[in-house]
Design a protein that fits this description.
The chain is of the alpha+beta class. The chain contains 5 helices and 6 strands, in the order H-H-E-E-H-E-H-E-H-E-E. Helix content is 30%, strand content 27%.
Length: 151
């Protein structure tokens, strides 16, 4: 998360104590967001997480996300592993194996910054479609809300 190409889109303190404070409860299963390490040839190259929007209703309301839908976030932290076409593959496999395996999930909706072209391209190549653009309360930039419905 400290890699410049990731930190540019992640607006929070990234020292080890802050990361442990935020993500520790998720790893321990205390919070409703599920986090995973992305591995490539048995080497960690990033992380991915998913959550039900019903667990985050205020954010869901701002995105106009149905509460029966899920959200995902991910980052490939190893710079050398970016630009290789892995993003769409990771997204699709994660949805197939993990997110859509949960029968409660009707769709996946996420909200990259509108200037995060790499992320938007990965979601588009994975089959997500643009739903609309929003600006969340307290933010100075816009997000593109993208979605993929359960097949």
């Amino acid at each position: 998360m400290c890699a410049p190409h990731v930190a540019a889109w992640w607006y929070e303190s990234l020292d080890l104590a802050s990361v442990n404070l935020k993500y520790g409860p998720r790893v321990d299963g205390i919070e409703p967001t599920h986090v995973f390490v992305i591995e490539y040839t048995v080497r960690p190259i990033g992380w991915i997480q998913w959550y039900l929007w019903s667990d985050y209703p205020e954010h869901a309301r701002q995105l106009r996300a149905e509460l029966a839908s899920a959200g995902i976030d991910l980052a490939i932290g190893e710079r050398a592993m970016t630009g290789l076409g892995l993003g769409p593959v990771i997204i699709l496999e994660f949805l197939r194996q993990i997110v859509f395996a949960d029968s409660r999930v009707s769709a996946v909706i996420t909200d990259p910054e509108e200037s995060n072209f790499r992320s938007l391209r990965a979601f588009s190549k994975a089959g997500f479609t643009l739903a609309h653009t929003v600006q969340l309360a307290g933010e100075h930039f816009k997000r593109q809300v993208v979605r993929m419905d359960r097949a």
